[in-house]
């Protein structure tokens, strides 16, 4: 049985434009909060394949999306490379020993050895393949090397990225070594997700906007392209989605290139601009402003506006970033229904 989401990634005809939401398995669902409480904490939930599979499936049953995205976290990679990770309530993820120099980097596990430590992720995917309806796609994912590097250097989330940028401008060789080590692990990590059963993979560059446009290719995009091309070379039947958040100037200047299938458009990038610059080359995903979900009428307006630009051609509906924890579930359901309504052929 064909999967509408996979067909759309390859620009095949579909009965309507498929829809899913970033962070669709999460805190806005009381069912998720119940499972998370059972797990004890967020990392325990990521490490428990049965519970991770349960929360991955919840949005399909409750909200009606067309694809499930694996429940995990981008930071499991540096964690399994040897960096101790804690999720502190009210503060988010913390690495207590961030990378300051080459000696710190040299201590980390690399390549195949690091990828093999992520067994719980692959076990979750195998369970999901047994449980998901045949017509629903499963999306595997990773953080981009740059986004992971920011956490590994800063030790936590940051608004200024000053520690990363200090290395970027004063010791670029070290930053490239960090990015290289991450790229090599990520290639194998995504490959193992595919071998476990992922139908699609997405690369998230959540902190793309932290890099000035003239340096974005050097310190992020070229590594993402290398990962995408590694996957496409070996698994041409697996769609690859790229999602760099906050790069309209990069798009505008025609700097997006590479062998992948779908470009995720963030909410700060006009959909018409993305279509003009990229629509002939890549299927576009996105890009409703997530806060529109607080209002059903504003959601409908935005869905109709995106549909009028994309016309149901080469498009996947999504938010322009993740759904927020206090969005009413009925509004998320409304968004999904409206996407299907306006695009039904």
UniProtKB/TrEMBL annotation:
GO terms, biological process: protoporphyrinogen IX biosynthetic process from glutamate
Top EC group: lyase
Uroporphyrinogen decarboxylase (URO-D) domain ranges (all copies): 18-27, 139-155
GO molecular function: uroporphyrinogen decarboxylase activity
Key words, A-Z: Cytoplasm, Decarboxylase, Lyase, Porphyrin biosynthesis
Annotated pathway: Porphyrin-containing compound metabolism; protoporphyrin-IX biosynthesis; coproporphyrinogen-III from 5-aminolevulinate: step 4/4
Domain of life, source organism: Bacteria
Annotated positions binding substrate: 23-27, 73, 151, 206, 321
Any Gene Ontology CC annotation: cytosol
Catalytic activity: uroporphyrinogen III + 4 H(+) = coproporphyrinogen III + 4 CO2
Coiled coil: none
Site (Transition state stabilizer): 73
Subcellular location: Cytoplasm
EC number: 4.1.1.37
Matches recorded under Pfam families: URO-D (PF01208)
Signal peptide: none
Main location as per UniProt: cytoplasm
Function: Catalyzes the decarboxylation of four acetate groups of uroporphyrinogen-III to yield coproporphyrinogen-III.
Annotated family: Belongs to the uroporphyrinogen decarboxylase family.
Binding partners and assembly: Homodimer.
The name this protein goes by in its record: Uroporphyrinogen decarboxylase
Highest classification ranks of the organism: Bacteria, Pseudomonadati, Campylobacterota, Epsilonproteobacteria, Campylobacterales
Gene name of the encoded protein: hemE
